[in-house]
Structures are given as structure tokens and as C-alpha cells.
Amino acid sequence: PATTLQDIISHAKEYGFVFPSSEIYDGLQAVYDYGQNGVELKNNLKQVWWKAMTQLHDNIVGIDAAIFMHPLTWKASGHVDGFNDPMIDNKDSKKRYRADQLLEGKAEEYEAAGEPEKAAALLAKMGALLGAEKLDEVRELIIEEKIVCPISKTLNWTEVRQFNLMFSTQVGSVAEDSSNIYLRPETAQGIFVNFLNVQKSGRMKVPFGIAQIGKAFRNEIVARQFIFRMREFEQMEMQFFIKPGTEMEWYNTWKDTRLKFHKAIGLPADKLKYHDHDKLAHYANAAVDIEYQFPFGFREIEGIHSRTDFDLKNHQELSKKKQQYFDPELGEDGKAIGNYIPYVVETSVGADRLFLATFCNAFTQETGEKERTYLKLHPALAPIKAAVLPLVKKDGLAEKAQEIANSLKSSFRTIYDDGGAIGKRYTRQDLIGTPYCIAVDYQTMEDNTVTIRHRDSMEQERIAISALKEKIGYEVAM
Ligand code: ATP
């Protein structure tokens, strides 16, 4: 049977990956918590990304900027004035929705009903209308598609208007003293405002990049699709500073590099595609999404944007601090290139969306004789790399297994489990995606060998304890 989003949500909850936030109080909409296995998978994804960006590129370094930023940051970025999210209100329920998400919901219905062409056509039409800012026609499309308010069930919609989704809060203790600041809606600006700090202190030469992983906040109106769209989420962004005029070259390079990354961590080529933007954001001169085929259709997991000098130029204007780079090279005309504001190509991927894509892709249900459910995660991403299981607890087998688990622990996440029949213990590991189960039996006591059971093939092989570390150590090939 085809995997549904509900299968994914249930499995994620039952096996300690993702829980609804504040669940004992019936949860908080569009907010989720990662459980004991989820946090490991997410950390592994972040680590692989961090390594791909910083460790494997001599000219990319990382930073960790604060979530709170000076309010002028959001003026410079265009977030305060540039309202980018099309909202529509239902006159009966007085509820507000994001117009694009109502239409996406309809596309999902088509998808679920086995009509992917209809879904794609609707999304394309919506993209074109939003791109041309034809908000009246967006409303007409909603009515044409008979999309009713989920609460009032009526078609009584207002016009579509643009809003912004930033959360604000106060800093300072006394009301009169306090000033309004925002929770950052993207991590990118923390990189831009530190561009010169990093460039100077690290003596970085253009082209170079700054990478960051961190929380971002958007007051998303519609809570749907599990962790795909949350109000508090995590971004992994890299801003690549380049010489003006070289942006298309770098845009294409990063487009390529990032698709390769997703394949390297195990997402299959046929479930990934590029989607060129019909609508360019106010800061971009070229933009593409990398989309993954979720159970609810192809959706964005990462955006690659050529942002020109939009951000640095605006920060220079508002801060009155030069945001220029001095290029010591000589140009083609033999003259020194000198000062300029670099252009930027950005790659921006949601850690949570990448988690969801990885999780959906790994979720495997086999039917028939070998009926079982397991997570076919890339071994480098699996929450637990190895489980050591004594066949029985007596005759020193438990102690031997403990000893093996302890010897592996500092190299990778290893657990020891002696509870229940061995078949049950294998199943438990399959369900959370552990790639290797190490069984300790009577032969182990004689010759120091163990059996390794492979998660995907369920095949078992006998190997020496001393060979375990090398067998299990696993990296993403990039
Ligand atoms: P969407 O159109 O789906 O709202 P976006 O185009 O606004 O996304 P960007 O601003 O380009 O997204 O953000 C970059 C990445 O951050 C996205 O590709 C996505 O992975 C992630 N992201 C954005 N908004 C959310 C959210 N509400 N919840 C989880 N991840 C998000």
C-alpha cells in the first residue's frame, strides 16, 4: 500500500521521532518536539550538511548568530514592508488563511484522488497568478475550485491581501522602556550583518561562503502537513559572496552541488526535481527550488537564490557602514578591481523538511512472507548505528555483549538490549532504522566472533569482534 502522511506521523510518534508539542495540553498548532530518536536523526542530518559545507570547502566557514537582531535588520531585508504572504479571510468564520496554502491543499486532494496532472496544473496556475501579483484572480481561483473554509464550510471569501508572518516581542523590563523586536524569520540576515566581521577576521577572499544552522520563526496561518510547515523551525543556510557578474555561474554550480547532496544522503533521483520560480522574490534575480516527492506531492525542501547585492546594499544604506570588499586582484584591463559590494548566491534548506523527506523515503513496509516495517535510513543518518544483543542472558553472554557495546560506544551510538526474544529485538531496531544488530551467542564465548544482521537484507554474517568498528563506521560519500 502507498504510504500516507498519516502512516508517517503515527510511526514518528510511536517510535520516538516526533511528538506534538505540549501534547498533554492537547498540543500547540504547527509546533512539534523531536524525541529521543528524532533528535539523533536530525543532528546527523545537520552534521552531514555542516561537514559538506564547511569541512569540505576551504572557502566556507560557519557562524552562529543570535535569533534576536536589531529591528533595522528587517527593514533592510524587506521583511517589514514587503508583505509576501497572500492571505484571505472567510467572512463567516472570521478565520484567516494563506491563499497559496488553500490551493495547495486542493492540489493535495487531487493528488490523493490519483489525479496528479490536475494537481500540477492547479499549482502552476497559482504560481503564475501569484507571480504576477494578480490577487483578485487568486481569489477567483479559490472560488472556482470550490475551496470552502474548513470551519464554516462556506465559500464566502474576502479579497486576497499580502501580510508578513513575523513574530514580534518586547525586549526591556518596563513597558515604556521596551522596544519591539522580531524573532528572525530566516537565518540569512545574521550572516549578512556579519559579512565584514568574518571576511576581515578570517581574511576571506571572494568567492567565499558563510554557513549557519539555526531556528527561524514564521507565524504560518495554516497548520498542515506535519513538520513540513511549522511556526518554529530550523534552517541550514549558506550565503556565498561573489564578484558581481559571476552570479549565474555560481548559481548553476550550487544548484548542482545541492542536488548531489540530497542524492548522497539517500534521497532517490526520481523523487527529486528542480522547480524554477515563476515568481521571483523581491531580493532575487534567479531562483530555483529543489523539490522532494512527499506523500502529498512534490514540495520544496531547499531554495537556491541569486540574491544580487540586495541585502548588503540595504544594510549599507541603513547602517551607514560600508559593506564593501576590497578585491586586490587585477581585472582583465590590468587595473586594480578595488572595492565593491559582493553579490550573493544562497542555498537554504529546512532541517525539518529534510528530516521529513528522509523519514518518508526511509519508511518501508514489506508485505507477504517477509512482512515487516523498517526505516531504510542511510547508516550515517540512523539514530542508532548498532545494537548489541545477547542471545540469552545467562552463561556470561550478557556481560560479553555489554563489553562489546561499551567498546563501540565512543565511536558511534550503540545500545545494548537483552529484553525479549531475539526476533522481537531485531524488529525493534528495524522500526527505528538501526543498520546493524550484533548478536552474541555461545560461539562468541569460544572464538570472539559475533553475527551481524543487516537491516535491509536481513542477512547475517559472522565476523570477528575486532573487525566490528571498521564494519560499522559509515560516512556519506560526497
Ligand atoms: P514555503 O513557500 O513553503 O513557505 P519559502 O519559499 O517561504 O517556503 P524559504 O523562505 O525559501 O521558504 O526558506 C528556505 C527553506 O526553509 C525552505 O526550503 C524550507 O525547507 C524551510 N522552511 C521555510 N518555511 C518553513 C516552515 N514554516 N516550516 C518548516 N520549514 C520551513
TrEMBL record:
Highest taxon listed in the record's lineage: Bacteria
Gene3D superfamilies: 3.30.40.230, Anticodon-binding domain, Bira Bifunctional Protein, Domain 2
A GO biological process held by the record: glycyl-tRNA aminoacylation
Residues noted as binding ATP in the record, renumbered to the chain: 218-220, 228-233, 300-301, 350-353
PROSITE patterns, per database record: AA_TRNA_LIGASE_II (PS50862)
Residues reported to bind substrate: R98, E186, F233, E234, Q235, M236, E237, E346, T347, S348, V349, G350
Any one Gene Ontology molecular-function term assigned to this protein's record: bis(5'-nucleosyl)-tetraphosphatase (asymmetrical) activity
Pfam families, A to Z: HGTP_anticodon, tRNA-synt_2b
Keywords assigned: Aminoacyl-tRNA synthetase, ATP-binding, Cytoplasm, Ligase, Nucleotide-binding, Protein biosynthesis
UniProt-listed NCBIfam families: glyS_dimeric, PRK04173.1
Function text: Catalyzes the attachment of glycine to tRNA(Gly).
Family: Belongs to the class-II aminoacyl-tRNA synthetase family.
Protein name: Glycine--tRNA ligase
